[in-house]
Design a protein that fits this description.
3 helices
Length: about 100
């Protein structure tokens, strides 16, 4: 299945939360590289390989609320029945794991 051809009304989407200040890290951790790919790039590829529409939330509509600001932002613009949220610092999430969670939901 080509992830780009998925309808926007698919039952589930994957949202990568990458809007944090990375205060403890001192730099944008979503842009850190692990091998050839950024952390966000790894997760984006995993979501698409699992067969789901995948998008990144970098700018929260309600800043300063931590991850909940990103969750709210994503839900306000979602056109799916369900959303799987991933933090941008979870590079070892695999397409298989995403499919397992989707099936369990």
């Amino acid at each position: 299945m080509n992830p780009r051809s998925l309808p926007h009304t698919s039952p589930l989407e994957v949202v990568i939360l990458a809007g944090g200040a990375s205060a403890r890290m001192g730099r944008d951790k979503s842009r850190l590289r692990l091998g050839r790919w950024t952390l966000v790039g790894i997760l984006r590829r995993a979501g698409r390989a699992a067969g789901f529409r995948t998008r990144v939330v970098r700018r929260d509509r309600v800043p300063g609320c931590g991850p909940l600001g990103g969750v709210w932002t994503a839900l306000q613009s979602s056109r799916t029945a369900g959303t799987l949220f991933l933090g941008c610092d979870m590079p070892f999430v695999t397409p298989r794991l995403i499919r397992l969670v989707a099936r369990a939901a």
